[in-house]
Amino acid sequence: MAEPKAGLALSVTDLIVLAPGGRRLAEVAALQVAPGSSVAIRGPSGAGKTTLLHALSGLVRPASGGVVWGETDLATLSDTALTRFRRDRIGLIFQDFLLFEELGALDNAAIATAFLPRAQRSALRHRAGEWLERLGLGQDGARRADSFSGGERQRIAVARALANDPPVILADEPTASLDRANADRLAEDLAALSRDTGRTLVVVTHDMTLAARLDRVLTMAEGRIVEDTHE
Amino acid sequence: MNSVGALWSGLPVLMQDVAMLVLLLAPGLMTGLLVLRGFAPWQLVRAMLRRFRGANAVFVALIAVSVAIGVGLTAQERGLRQGSARAAERFDLILAAPGSEITAMLAAVYLQPSDVPLLTGAQYTEVATDPDVVLAAPIAFGDSYQGAPVVGTIADFVAHLAGDLAEGRMFAISTEAVAGAYAPVATGDRFTPAHGHGAAAEADAHAGADYVVTGRMAPTGSPWDRAILVPIEGVWEVHGLANGHALSEGERIGPPFDADLFPGTPAILVRAEALWGNYALQSRYARPDMMAFFPGTVLAQMHGLMRDVREAMSLLAVVTQVLVTVSILAGLVILTRIFARGLALLRAIGASRRFVFAVVWSYSAALIAAGSLAGLALGWLAASAFSAIITARTDILVTATVTWAEAQLVAGFVSLTLVLALVPALAATRRQRLADLRS
């Protein structure tokens, strides 16, 4: 496997995200994440965890404040540039996998080949295959996604997130749809991912086991970070 | 503009057809090239095709049926027009008693039973002895055998109609017959004609008046292929009439006929030595006691009258295609909503808005292309089936084939709908990405 890209540092300042009606969904005065570290975001439902994650990924534009990854301030990017930044620098993992059930595992993991520049496609597909191999699904690349168990499907989603070799991984409740055994395995995979490859990892989770494996745990309530615990 | 027109006119017909096809396809292909530039959305299109298999099959079937209606109608109409013209092409000039040219043509060329007034022996003799006339064939009908018309005429006309016989020999006496290519009798058969046609035919009316089949004509593609041709003297004799010859002539058949012993004929099929001669004859015999007409001209008039109907049918076919297409595109917008979460995922992981646009457009294009190709095949099959039915019922050889005209019709449809498919693609890109992602 190729050398991973170094993780990016995250700097959030005076971030405010509003709902369309004006309700305040998230408000983060300051948050710094060192490159290559792993962070869990916990909190009750409606605390603003997923909103913060979406703001970190640029999926929502904050009403004010800034999200800076490395040297890149997301607020300065056009919609097209932001999309490209997400494509090249961020790997996203979702709670319910969001796979294309009709496609095989490798086709799902390498789905970005459909829209990447032609020159990057074969390398991405190769990496997607390597990640599937590393996550224990190397023999099943051609199998349709809907024939896998929940845990396996989430591993395909992880391979998809990593296939373009992003320095940042953002995961939203990645273990919520899994049974305990699969959740534990995925938690170990994600922790190892950050630890071994130097990627910056931010995970929204209710899963204490997963949170405990990461460097730092943030607790949110009513849109704010109310607790910040380092390992 | 004139130079473009001259260039176009100078192209061979095949080149014009190909060029027109390419021109019609160009807007759709250009749209595709622009939309797909830099992308490879086929896996995702495949996923969408698999996910909505049932709905996709219905959409493809709807497109196919609407295209088939257009293709089938135009191919069938052209096949019928060409078939009817081909059936009449051996009939240069028809002379008949004053009345309806169409009725006389249907009777003489297409052997449709009808009551038409008769030309007299004197009229026939005048025509037959005209120095400009090479062939003047009287005809007589009214009998049938197993549904096939029994038509009386002269040997020269049989030769003119079908050339050399496919088997056997020409009739030589009034009780011999030559079968049309597909007539229900074989060489050597003996048969008794029924009086009249169809259900009203009287099978025993001519008991004892048998014919022996001596030969079979080659196919002509006309209703005469199902007919049984006999000497006109035979028909007259069977009906108890004089046979056009004095008793002293014995069993001789064929012209010249004795005008006083000529019972009459509903039509004389006339041919001059040269084409211009037919025009001279037509001019000469179009007079108060006789009408002279070219079947081709009457057919052209009939086709002209039917042109409005044809155009209305074509318009209806196009309207049907457009309505079906609009319905399908509306359906695609709905299907795309079902797929919206997948599309939102693509946007989330870095696909551009243009890529999502390309995926949805390609999906629509795949359905349109599949439906149109299936429609072309279905239209050809339907036209062939209808041609077979019409040929069986009218004995006019109708061969409906898919030609450049149908290919161009489908190309135009494909191009138009590929451009229209931009609408659901655009709708897909306007959706709320985050809402779709959370849905």
From TrEMBL, chain A:
Residues 10-231 form the ABC transporter domain. GO terms for cellular component: plasma membrane. Gene3D superfamilies: P-loop containing nucleotide triphosphate hydrolases (3.40.50.300). It comes from the Bacteria. Keywords: ATP-binding, Nucleotide-binding, Transport. GO terms for molecular function: ATP binding; ATP hydrolysis activity; transmembrane transporter activity. The keyword S-adenosyl-L-methionine does not apply. The keyword ATP-binding applies. Pfam families: ABC_tran (PF00005). Belongs to the ABC transporter superfamily. This is ABC transporter ATP-binding protein. It comes from Paracoccus gahaiensis.
TrEMBL record, chain B:
Keywords: Membrane, Transmembrane, Transmembrane helix. InterPro entries: ABC-4/HrtB_transporter (IPR051125). It comes from the Bacteria. The keyword Transmembrane helix applies. The chain crosses the membrane at residues 20-40, 52-73, 312-335, 356-389, 409-429. This is FtsX-like permease family protein. It comes from Paracoccus gahaiensis.
